[in-house]
Write a structure and sequence with these properties.
Its EC number is 1.1.1.300. One of its GO terms (cellular component) is cytosol. It catalyses: all-trans-retinol + NADP(+) = all-trans-retinal + NADPH + H(+). The chain is an alpha/beta fold. The chain contains 8 helices and 6 strands. It has a 6-stranded parallel sheet with strand order 3-2-1-4-5-6, sandwiched between helices. The structure holds NADPH dihydro-nicotinamide-adenine-dinucleotide phosphate.
Length: 249
């Protein structure tokens, strides 16, 4: 439980990558300013987080199950928090999807929106009324550079991040008078499981329906240059965690 003066921070998607690193960085804050509720949809994946959290686990960091695609799970999680008080919500959970539109079913596309867009909306809807009532709060949303610019064969993922941007830009204006801030984080490439999965997906990717020029551009120009950018400019999840800490301080 949070002690007096501590901010309650709830983070989604803490089993790996950025979410895990943000949770650990905030839990280890040397002034103990945060009580971190690290959430993940499957707590069988908790070992990496607990190992990194060390002796902060059970003190400044606690663990909760939360699947952002399930309204019941979201409600259960928030209701289990004392006074439903979340001072800082970090909407981090997200999935990618790569491939020509012709090869992706509507069901697969909906899954991306269910997680990235509606997952975020579910979280915000659940914490926002209490933040407005308390006239205090900060909502951090993990968008992407792809929330600002379209990228070939990333149509659906990009669309989900654009949707998040539009929703939050509109909401931010309405929440200002309640002293609730909304901040978007828009990372470029980050070395996480997300990146590993994307590279595996690329390796087995097929291109039914896509025209030869686009496939050639993707394989011969876009992919090699992306790999170079990853190599030269790719950030670590710790970099993004430090950036988020600065935003909330
Ligand atoms: P990871 O794949 O390492 O982390 C994604 C996290 O989201 C995992 O913990 C995963 O949990 C969780 N998750 C997926 N679906 C759900 C769900 N339904 N409910 C709750 N949690 C869920 O990737 P990153 O750390 O890189 O990604 C974090 C965020 O950063 C994402 O929103 C991504 O779009 C964004 N981002 C990533 C970039 C990158 O290059 N890596 C660049 C820009 C933005 P589980 O273990 O259960 O699958």
């Amino acid at each position: 439980m949070a002690s007096d003066g501590q901010k309650v921070v709830l983070i989604t998607g803490c089993s790996s990558g950025i979410g895990l690193r943000v949770a650990v960085l905030l839990a280890k804050d040397d002034r103990k300013r945060y009580h971190v509720i690290a959430t993940m949809r499957d707590t069988k994946r908790k070992d990496k987080l607990l190992e990194a959290a060390g002796d902060t686990y059970g003190k400044t960091l606690t663990l909760q199950t939360l699947d952002v695609c399930s309204e019941e799970s979201v409600k259960q999680c928030i209701n289990s928090i004392k006074d439903r008080r979340v001072d800082i919500l970090i909407n981090n959970a997200g999935i990618g999807l790569l491939g020509p539109v012709e090869s992706i079913s509507i069901e697969e596309m909906k899954k991306v929106f269910e997680t990235n867009f509606f997952g975020m909306v579910r979280m915000i809807k659940e914490v926002m009324p209490d933040m407005k009532m308390r006239r205090s709060g900060h909502i951090i949303v993990m968008s992407s550079v792809m929330g600002l610019q379209g990228v070939v064969f990333n149509d659906v993922y990009t669309a989900s991040k654009f949707a998040m941007e539009g929703f939050c830009e509109s909401l931010a204006v309405q929440l200002l008078k309640f002293n609730v801030n909304v901040s978007m984080i828009e990372p470029g490439p980050v070395h996480t499981e997300f990146e590993v999965k994307m590279m595996q997906d690329v390796a087995k990717m097929e291109y039914p329906g896509a025209d030869a020029d686009t496939v050639r551009y993707f394989k011969d120009v876009y992919l090699p240059s992306s790999l170079d950018i990853f190599e030269a400019m790719g950030q670590s999840p710790e970099d993004i965690a430090r950036c988020i800490k600065k935003v909330i301080e």
